[in-house]
Design brief:
10 Kd Chaperonin, Protein Cpn10, Chain O, mainly beta, six-stranded antiparallel beta sheet
Length: 107
Amino acid sequence: MSGDEKLPISMLNDRLLVKIPVNDGDRRSGGGILIPATAQVAKRLVWAEVVALGQTVRAAEVGDRVLFSPDDRYEVEVGGIDYIMLRERDLHAVAASRIEASTGLYL
């Protein structure tokens, strides 16, 4: 088998494959102040979109947005695109339209 052939991928156990949305890195505060990407923010959690998941994952589905710590991730390249591999236990929150609004917070 040559290294150029494409093979299907199946996520195992409690693993999730997520993709962080591409943006310029700059953010805006609630008051409209521009925060540059170079500003240091300690222990900031990150949102990403689930693109694949293992058979034992129960808290998320493909297409959901999940919140996790950048310290708990493993980066992987698939087909020239960078993804992040997570364990389900590393998730802090799941955002999806199917979830009832119980916190009063919305994305």
